[in-house]
Design goal:
Layout: E1 9-19, H1 21-27, E2 32-42, E3 48-52, H2 55-60, H3 62-71, E4 77-78, H4 89-97, H5 103-107, H6 111-114, H7 118-167, E5 188-189, E6 196-197
Antiparallel strand pairs: 1-2, 2-3, 2-4, 5-6
Length: 198
């Protein structure tokens, strides 16, 4: 609940777009999360506290939060149309009128909605291709990194094997010791006859 001291505060709720690094890497394209934030300033001060909105702030400043929600669409996650090179600013403005703010939403349009405007069907197909290509490229990149790591590990193992082989002593043969031959092998006895074999 608001206190008397809250009357001296300037409150502003807003959304902040933050890049989701983990999902961007996985999907192979820039993915952003919209985070609800609050700015709190004391009247007459330049100092400002900016932080993510919590339930405490929603309850403490209900009127400001309701006003913010009336003017804002629900926070989204995805690649904003503004970040997609294929989308012209006029197309982005047109999509905004229909509540479409991300490439992901555009790609998910049903056939019925996409057929309202012939250009939408084309853009939907391009959006789907963009998402598919980004995912494919991310997988290829991941495999390339994995392959490079395995090659490095193999090279390290081979180097280690060579070091170990270098440490194994080789038999030394002197000039007066003739090389061992089959004739020098000890005689074997057969189990049944007790005879000696050469």
């Amino acid at each position: 609940m608001a206190s008397k001291d809250d009357a001296s505060l300037l409150i502003r709720f807003f959304t902040l777009r933050e890049k989701n690094e983990a999902r961007s890497t996985t999907e192979g394209r820039d993915i952003f999360d919209e985070i609800e934030c609050i700015s709190i300033r004391v009247l007459g001060s330049r100092d400002e506290l900016v932080t993510a909105v919590t339930d405490d702030y929603r309850l403490r400043f209900p009127d400001e939060y309701k006003a913010f929600k009336r003017d804002q669409a629900a926070p989204l996650t995805g690649t904003p149309l503004e970040e997609w090179p294929a989308a012209a600013s006029s197309f982005i403005d047109e999509m905004r009128v229909y509540g479409i703010r991300t490439v992901d939403q555009l790609a998910a349009l049903s056939d019925g909605i996409a057929m309202i405007n012939p250009g939408w069907m084309t853009m939907r197909t391009r959006a789907q291709a963009f998402l598919d290509n980004a995912k494919h490229n991310a997988m290829s990149e991941s495999l390339a990194v994995e392959n490079a790591t395995l090659k490095q590990q193999m090279a390290a193992m081979q180097a280690q094997m060579q070091q170990l082989m270098a440490m194994v002593p080789t038999p030394v043969q002197t000039a007066d010791t003739p090389p061992a031959t089959v004739a020098d092998a000890p005689e074997l006895e057969t189990a049944d006859a007790g005879t000696k074999k050469r």
